[in-house]
Design goal:
CATH topology of the largest domain: Rossmann fold
Largest sheet: 7 strands, parallel
Order of helices and strands: EHEEHEHEHHEHEHEHEHEHEHEHEHHH
Strand content: 15-25%
CATH superfamily of the largest domain: Glycogen Phosphorylase B
Number of domains: 2
Length: 369
């Protein structure tokens, strides 16, 4: 089958999908809508995947460029003649594919595109409805996406859900590889956050809560990976609190190096205001790390309180600070919670198994009239 995989950019998530598709019998083409400023994925495309050169994929996407992109997309379709197009996020990438008249179309929600973007923007809401009306099968990673698609008029029986999953061999329990000792943190209680520093991910909430909790627990340390538009705000909170010596900052980290950070941490934190099945949450679980995460629907599909971790009220700094202190006080119970976390990851987060559901979605789409 000739498969066109059409995505917004080239991210670690795209690499995961394309690397798996490259190992199938399908002939895979990759089309990207835009190229944003920051480096998202440093691994090259799998050699079996052919990148399509077109007018898009060279700069950030602008709606004013849509007519030119639409015309060139039609050329790409005539040239490749794909048997199936896989496109997402829904309100922009799948919308462009749908407006180009492709069929069958498998649209893929990236979580926040349906859970957040269409709520805040009438234009994106309309685009999502348009795309879904012309979608053969929709894939998503959590029940909340399925419910939102149904609210937008998409038939529930044509939704295929599966967590995007992770490599359980790479992300696995293990000993800290001297990360803590190199910083004199052997007796510290280490918190880890690696979400992008963008408003939707609530990293500012994490830093404020850390500052509060650190007043009562001097052993607390925080590892912050990544970066983003809130960098100046995050750094200001850290320095205004006088905690710069208790925080470790790192920019983009290679995927293969991430397990070191999970294993060095006592507790994984996420204050995201919107998520599907979070990949970083699955990675933390697979590395046997207990978690403390916002009580949004996507997280609630994964965590049982007091089993793999805890919730705190979304956006509530004081609640997160109290949750951190609770974890410190219950430190002796964390190994048991970590074992439960790994067991959950083995049950639900194995990408090698979850990927098969995507292939099933393709077969379903080909059978849809």
């Amino acid at each position: 089958m000739r498969l066109l995989y059409f995505s917004r950019d080239y991210t670690p998530h795209d690499h995961r999908f394309l690397a798996s598709l490259a190992r199938t019998e399908h002939q895979v083409y990759f089309l990207r809508l835009e190229r944003r400023g920051q480096q998202l994925e440093d691994r090259p495309l799998p050699p079996e995947v052919q990148q399509v050169i077109w007018k898009g994929g060279r700069a950030p996407f602008r709606w004013r460029d849509f007519p030119a992109l639409w015309l060139d997309f039609k050329r790409v379709i005539r040239q490749i003649q794909p048997d199936l197009v896989h496109a997402g996020p829904v309100p922009n990438v799948a919308f462009l594919a749908a407006s180009g008249g492709v069929h069958p179309l498998v649209s893929m929600s990236w979580g926040s595109d349906l859970l957040l973007d269409v709520e805040n923007d009438r234009w994106q809401n309309w685009c999502a409805r348009f795309a879904l009306q012309r979608t053969s099968v929709l894939t998503g990673d959590c029940q909340a996406v399925k419910e939102k698609a149904a609210a937008l008029g998409f038939p529930e029986e044509r939704v295929v859900l599966f967590p995007w999953g992770i490599d359980l061999d790479l992300f696995s329990p293990g000993l800290d590889s001297n990360f803590r000792s190199r910083r004199g943190w052997e007796d510290a209680f280490v918190l880890l956050s690696l979400r992008s520093w963008e408003p939707v991910y609530g990293v500012d909430i994490i830093v404020r809560a850390f500052a509060q909790a650190a007043q009562e627990a001097p052993e607390l340390r925080l590892v912050l990976l990544g970066g983003g538009s809130q960098a100046s705000l995050v750094q200001k909170i850290i320095y205004d609190s006088g905690l710069q010596n208790r925080v470790y900052l790192a920019s983009l980290v290679k995927n293969t190096d991430l397990p070191e950070y999970y294993r060095a941490a006592d507790l994984y934190l996420s204050a995201s205001h919107s998520d599907g099945s979070s990949v970083s949450l699955m990675e933390a679980l697979a590395c046997a790390r207990p978690v403390l995460v916002s009580d949004i629907p996507g997280n609630k599909e994964w965590i049982t309180p007091d089993q793999e971790g805890w919730f705190f009220a979304d956006g509530n700094v004081a609640a997160l600070a109290q949750g951190i202190l609770k974890a410190v006080h219950e430190r002796k119970n964390l190994p048991v919670m970590g074992a439960a976390a790994r067991k959950l990851a083995e049950k639900r987060a194995d990408w090698s198994k979850n990927f098969l559901k995507l292939l099933g979605a393709y077969k379903m789409a080909i059978g849809v009239n």
